[in-house]
Target: Choline dehydrogenase
Amino acid sequence: MTSIEQTDVVVVGSGFGGAIPAYHLAAGGARVVVLERGPWLASDEFQHDFLLGSSYTRIFDFTVGDGMSVLAGNCVGGGSVVYFATMPRAPRFVFDRTGGLGRRMWPSSIDRDTLDPWYDVVSGALPVTEQSWDDVPFAGGLFAAACARAGRTANPVPSAVDKHLCTNCNWMMAGCRFDAKRSLLLNYLPAALAHGARIRPLHEVQRLTRTPTGGYQVHYDVVDDTDYRRTRGSGVIEAKIVVLAAGAGATPVILQRSAAALGTMPPAVGRYFSGNGERLNTAVVDEARARDLLGLDRGDGTAYEAHQIGRGPCVATWDKLDDSLPEYSRFSLEQLYFPPGLGTVLAQVPGATGPTWFGREKKEMLRRWRSWLTVFTMSEDDNEGVFGAPPQRGNAERIAQQMLGRGSLRYDPTENTLRGWAESDAEVRDILERDGLARVRPWTNDQVGAYTVHPLSSCRIGDDPATSALDDRHELRDHPGIFVTDGSAVPGALTVNPALTIAALAERAVPGLVRAAQRRGVAVRYGAPSPDGTRTKAVPPPLAA
Model:
């Protein structure tokens, strides 16, 4: 009989929700194994192109659902490797949202005041820093100038970017070659490795089963490093604690598939999915108007023509993050760089007389792509996403050898969500279309439905067992020893970028994880210092000879 590997803790996923518990538990003395379904790339392996097989297709997971598509990280470091490192704290009103429930969604134990100390911990560990106007690249300056002219305020956003190392190459989504972006490869993961944690890339967890002693067996497949549709073996690891952090599009699927062995899942598993109320508008800027109306000049007579220069969101307007406004009318707008590929396909032609997404007018729009300004909305939605039956393996039926899959998520936006999108679209037009500065059109929902880069809430925390899969300590209801610490656990849309909130919640969950592990006989303690990411990196081990 083949022996089954044993450890204290298995962490599924290595993004914010996985790396943070992995570090603290390993530093506290527990034996920790991290299973990551994606590859492990070092800095010099991140490539500045969009070819199939490059880092761009290897480290992303794009899952097309029914009415909602999800773009997520698929690599060691998870979403932190592909994110834009914009790290605001959630507004105070978010924690009092009622959404479609008609009552507070968040647990009573969590509000902005109780989460602020955990925000502080993460902000110091990465670190998160404020940007000045001198740090803002051209696209941010254009958006800020347009906001000011329209009577709106604009703010440089806090970010986890080392401004001295950043080259403004705008290839952040393909991984940062320069270690300027403070991904988890530079802090929590190397610290976890230093304390004995083991990270295993290309290990896709399929299901959990229970051991006779009350622990769990984690069943995984080893994924081919080139064609993710193929596997190169399978295995089982036995652990006393399992931390699920595979992402809001994958964690509920693992639990759904595990129900046959573990028993009935809480009714909120795979329900109440939120796309963080996200929406994109593309503005095609009139260069002459940008020069004359806004007084912009790059020094050579060019007003803008700089869509590709920068580092993702650098400037936001938060005027509509006002707790006096009614729910679903609150949103933030960020200037954003969305790279070629999906961005050029889904961007629509403003004022088109023919087809909006292909044809002669689209070709002309693409010719002027350097004059684009993309505006990203994060609003309040109604948590209307529901996952259907899980696929045979993984979180989706793989369509291509990398990146693309078809998932079981169904999303039918309510009138509340649609109203929020309509109000935010109108705000974008009011800011950017004044006096012919630009022509604006939202990305279509006709081809792939809505889309999100910040999936949330599919296994959320809460006080009500009927509407929350987890208690306020992130433990899965009726399944002690299983914890969920990724974006799945966030109760609802945040109206801002969620990475810092996901990370803060994961930090907050660690003391409870340690206590649960101690009760199960794991020799572990809590109290490790913040990881020092200034001198080390999480570098993949050399290939075996």
